[in-house]
Design brief:
Blueprint: H1 5-18, E1 24-25, H2 26-35, H3 41-53, E2 57-62, E3 65-70, H4 72-81, H5 87-99, H6 101-109, E4 110-116, E5 122-130, E6 133-142, H7 145-170
Antiparallel strand pairs: 1-3, 2-3, 4-5, 5-6
Helix pairs in contact: 1-3, 1-4
Length: 174
């Protein structure tokens, strides 16, 4: 076990990010650390910030969702120091990932965002991802923000039907 708690928290974050093939939301990382009372929110934020500064993780901002993934340097760092995490903590993290696998995948698998374009309209980007690969990316224009927000909000519930429809059309089906 490590004597320095901050180092342990950083290694735990690297482990969590290294065990999934897609970015984890800040909410999911916080959920693990706070629900199991490993540390406080502010200490967790400090650990994330230090990992970002040292380029061991990457950050992705989408609207009000912050996502993190491990960098190649972070993977190397974990491979070198990861053995210092106790088997009990590793088992706890594995259980968390297993119990929350579907929720985590859904959070990052289907995304949508919009922004104001320079032409006084709005661009909406809707995506379906599998791991770190994009299965489908659609971009639309909208003349007003209300429509853009409506399209972004409905994407999660409609994405599967739209994906299946496009595949059927492209493959010559009805």
């Amino acid at each position: 076990m490590l004597s320095e708690p901050m180092t342990l928290y950083k290694l735990m974050i690297l482990y969590l990010l290294g065990q999934v093939n897609y970015p984890l939301t800040e909410d999911r990382i916080s959920d693990f650390f706070l629900s199991r009372e490993y540390t406080t929110y502010f200490t967790l934020k400090q650990a994330l910030s230090e990992l970002l500064e040292s380029k061991l993780i990457h950050i992705h901002q989408v609207r009000n969702s912050t996502r993190y993934d491990i960098s190649p340097e972070g993977e190397q760092t974990f491979q070198f120091f990861g053995k210092k995490i106790s088997p009990e903590i590793l088992a706890d993290m594995d259980n968390f990932l297993r119990e929350n696998r579907i929720r985590i995948r859904n959070e990052v698998g289907v995304t949508a965002d919009y922004w104001k374009n320079g032409n006084q309209d709005y661009r909406i980007r809707c995506e379906i991802n599998e791991g770190r690969s994009s299965l489908l990316t659609l971009e639309f224009s909208s003349p007003d923000e209300h429509q853009a927000e409506l399209m972004r909000n409905r994407w999660k519930e409609c994405s599967q039907d739209i994906y299946v429809y496009i595949l059927k059309k492209l493959l010559g089906g009805n």
